[in-house]
TrEMBL record:
Compositional bias of kind Low complexity: 1-31
Protein name stated in the entry: Uncharacterized protein
Region (Disordered): 1-66
């Protein structure tokens, strides 16, 4: 059997403090570093939307009035709201991406099959109903705010020898102990081989209407192209759950942070992504039932798709945002303890499509183009500003910088290795796939 080629490995550099606000483009930068000292003053009281050891999690941060939601969720209300949103998006289009994170200002109303029959029955049409997912409701993940169902999985086709369970954290430690930085261990390479893609249909219930998302950007720098929309790839998750994002065209960024309004479904979403991940790299106890005294964050590569018919409007359902997440068994999840500064969720602007383009580019040093080392630096720098060092597992606390850098490398390399298994990816849209972070 031919030996598998090594996946490009993001290089780790010695680290020193560096400003997070205005990183230059990679070709203009001096050698990349990220701070090795945990920020001071970040380890105070936990954020109220944490619920460290609770299973149900905190309540929604904000709710729209019941009467407004009742009329707004009727068929006529949905059409009217989509018309207003389309007009608003068209006016903002020169300066911002659409709420779906693309260049299309049109927001179509969510018209369900039963609306044609029930439009005269005002109360039924106005109710936030969810069809076909009742069997997926589980008390473990909060039945009142979150529903999930595995709609596609290739688990039955996996060769038995490929599902060996590795102690992945020990693999990371072994690589660091041996000083192996530029190359991967055979165990790491095998762990990053994707053999199965699991599609998970999730519903984030809410009582919101016409609410703006609180987005804050880290590492802002001028955009190379104001028409590029890859940085908004994860916007559908927010807009489908009635939190309208606004991504500026003029600037690019290292990390987009979402700070509210918080929904209990966000908290349960992190639980679900963690439980469905094939491999985890944990710098603390990842079990959400265990109270470690602070919040945690799960970082992983995933893809998203619309609920039906490849139309994002079908995901924006009355009272429930419904999206399909694609989880890959060759992409490990990283879990770290975080301070009160951590956002509800965040994402890296680089997509799988950009990663592939860079791998086959004849001129990989194009200004503003994707570079694995650059993304590695961006994520590590940001994580170092929110990680709660006192809550890291004691045996790696003194060298958490090396462990964190190596773990982020594995997350990125899992995505880079997907080019070898395109037939397995199915409906995964490379323009809607990247690295996301959820706090829990």
């Amino acid at each position: 059997m031919a030996q598998q080629p090594l996946v490009p490995q993001p290089m780790q550099q010695p680290m020193m403090p560096q400003s997070m606000q205005k990183p230059m483009l990679p070709q203009q930068q001096s050698p990349r570093h990220y701070t090795t000292t945990a920020p001071q003053g970040l380890f105070g009281p936990k954020h109220s939307s944490g619920g460290h050891g609770a299973q149900t999690g905190p309540k929604d941060e904000k709710q729209t009035g019941g009467v407004q939601r009742f009329f707004g969720d009727t068929l006529f209300g949905r059409v009217a709201r989509s018309s207003v949103q389309t007009a608003t998006s068209a006016l903002k289009m020169p300066s911002s991406l659409s709420p779906w994170g693309d260049n299309n200002p049109v927001t179509l109303p969510n018209v369900r099959y039963r609306d044609a029959v029930l439009f005269t029955t005002f109360a039924f049409v106005g109710a936030p109903l969810v069809d076909g997912l009742s069997d997926g409701v589980t008390g473990v993940f909060g039945a009142d705010s979150f529903i999930s169902e595995i709609v596609s999985s290739g688990a039955g086709t996996i060769v038995a020898s490929t599902v060996i369970k590795y102690s992945v954290f020990q693999i990371v430690e072994q690589a660091i102990d041996k000083g192996i930085i530029e190359h991967m261990l055979p165990e790491e390479e095998k762990m990053l081989r994707t053999t199965n893609v699991k599609s998970l249909q999730v519903g984030i219930k809410h009582k919101l209407m016409g609410v703006d998302a609180d987005l804050r950007f880290v590492g802002i720098y001028p955009a190379q192209s104001t028409q590029a929309c890859e940085k908004g790839w994860f916007c559908p998750y927010l807009f489908a759950s009635a939190r309208t994002p606004q991504i500026p065209r003029a600037n690019d960024f290292s990390i987009c942070q979402f700070f509210g309004p918080f929904l209990n479904g966000d908290y349960q979403m992190a639980h679900k992504l963690l439980s469905e991940s094939a491999h985890t790299l944990s710098l603390c106890d990842p079990n959400p039932q265990t109270d470690i005294g602070t919040n945690r964050m799960v970082i992983l590569f995933t893809g998203i798709s619309p609920f039906r018919a490849n139309m994002w409007s079908t995901s924006r359902r009355p009272g429930c945002g419904t999206i399909i997440f694609h989880l890959l068994d060759g992409c490990p999840a990283l879990i770290i303890p975080v301070s009160s500064r951590a956002p509800i969720c965040a994402w890296s602007p680089w997509t799988l499509s950009q990663m592939r383009l860079a791998q086959y580019s004849l001129n990989p040093t194009t200004p503003g183009a994707y570079q694995a080392e650059w993304q590695h630096e961006q994520i590590c720098e940001w994580l170092d500003t929110i990680i709660s060092v006192p809550h890291i597992t004691e045996k790696v606390r003194d060298r958490y910088v090396d462990v964190l850098g190596r773990s982020v490398s594995l997350v990125i390399n899992g995505a880079l290795a997907l080019d070898k298994c395109r037939p397995l990816l199915g409906k995964l849209d490379p323009e809607r796939a990247g690295i996301v972070m959820f706090r829990y």
